[in-house]
Amino acid sequence: MAVSSSSPSQGKPISKPGIRWGVVGDKIFYYGTLALAASVLLICFLIVAMLYIGAEPAIHQFGWRFLTTQDWDPGNDIYSALPFIYGTVVSSLLALFIAVPIGLGTAIFLSELAPKWLRTPLSFLVELLAAVPSVVYGLWGIFVMIPALKPLESWLQDATAGSSLCRHLYIDQLFTASSLGFNMLAAALILAIMVLPFITAVSREVILAIPPTQREAAFGLGSTHWEAIKGPILRYSRAGIMGAVILGLARALGETMAVTMVIGNSTNPINVSVLSSASTLASVLASNFAEALQDLEVSSLYELALILFAITIVVNTIARLLIWNMSRTVKGAVRL
Q1: In the structure, what pLDDT confidence band is assigned to residue 2 with cuts at 50, 70 and 90?
Q2: What is the model's pLDDT at position 333?
Q3: Residue-by-residue DSSP string for 44-65
């Protein structure tokens, strides 16, 4: 008797369900996540649209003069952004001038030199600085940092005013117009502390991403540890480190509460002295928006917000492109 060799698959086909739930589930998941991703772009678009609609009266009233003049006079309905743009840029650059050497040195120590027992707790403590609320930094600045800075400010004023070389180079103008401690220098120091963990953390990860073969090659050629760090390690990581610096700059540009508490919030024209009161785009929005009465003043504040939004978007885009370029460079080195 012959035994049938037909397999179950060759028999009567199994009835299929009316709905293919696997395919439908995949489509629901795909379009659901697509909608969530698109919602981020939609939110950004709505923010820009809301700011532009609010700023439109000031844009039509002042045009490009809003960016090039220095008057902020609510009594006469005259407004401009240049002093606040200046305060934002100068305070952020001063903060980077202070924070970048400290942050980069800390990142090199944590990634290349620190013993293992110290590396993890020290990294945690540095990154913990990013978790401190900005209002805490502001209170610390008012009650601790500003009183401690007053002797230094007095010494800087006396030293530069008494030096003919400083007067000849106009350096003495940088340390005039003392404002009882609430000034650009205090804001820059607060910002430096706040951006330090971002610069350190990103730079550390960038340095750790360098292929071990680059270090081994440097040591194999007889390089010292310092020569290996300043040679292949920093050369391959320079784009990523620059991206970390620009991310820190973006953080400094948008900081509001701590800066508002220590910068003095002056709406006067530009004063080059770092010991004079000033305002940033973020601080003038925080201090003036609730008290704005005239429609044109409110519209001008909307335009300030639009300018700040545009600056931070551009700076963050540059930082991301630099870090992306760094990752491509590292991947190319690994393939080689």
Answers
A1: very low
A2: 54
A3: HHHHHHHHHHHHHHHHHHHTTH
